[in-house]
From TrEMBL:
The species this protein was found in: Pandoraea aquatica
Any one Gene Ontology molecular-function term assigned to this protein's record: DNA binding
InterPro entries in the cross-refs: Cro/C1-type_HTH, Lambda_DNA-bd_dom_sf
SUPFAM superfamilies given in the database record: lambda repressor-like DNA-binding domains
Protein name as it appears in the record: Transcriptional regulator
Length: 100
């Protein structure tokens, strides 16, 4: 299943407790632009997406198409290494390592 580029931006905005108007202000956009992007009525420029993401504290990452499924599976797993044992003695995930 291919995730829309807007889905994580919408989730991040809501998780941050921001209205569309507040996000627009932080990203230097109009509220109408944010509303149209989120509804799918506007196909935004890459620069608009980057400013929106950065206003939400996100950094977009480009992934080669050949690696997409593996990267998505890795991210869904919480950054766990393949075949990593679970439990107290398990090594930390890459996500936990990066957060430290």
């Amino acid at each position: 299943m291919m995730m829309s580029f807007m889905e994580p931006l919408i989730s991040a905005r809501k998780d941050a407790g921001l209205t569309q108007a507040e996000l627009a202000d932080q990203a230097g956009l109009s509220r109408m632009t944010v509303q149209k992007m989120e509804s799918g009525a506007l196909d935004p420029r890459m620069s608009t997406l980057l400013e929106t993401a950065r206003a939400l504290g996100l950094e977009p990452m480009f992934v080669p198409a050949a690696l997409r499924q593996e990267v998505e599976a890795f991210l869904r797993s919480g950054g766990k290494y393949l075949a990593q044992p679970s439990g107290v003695s398990a090594p930390p995930s890459i996500v936990e390592t990066l957060r430290a």
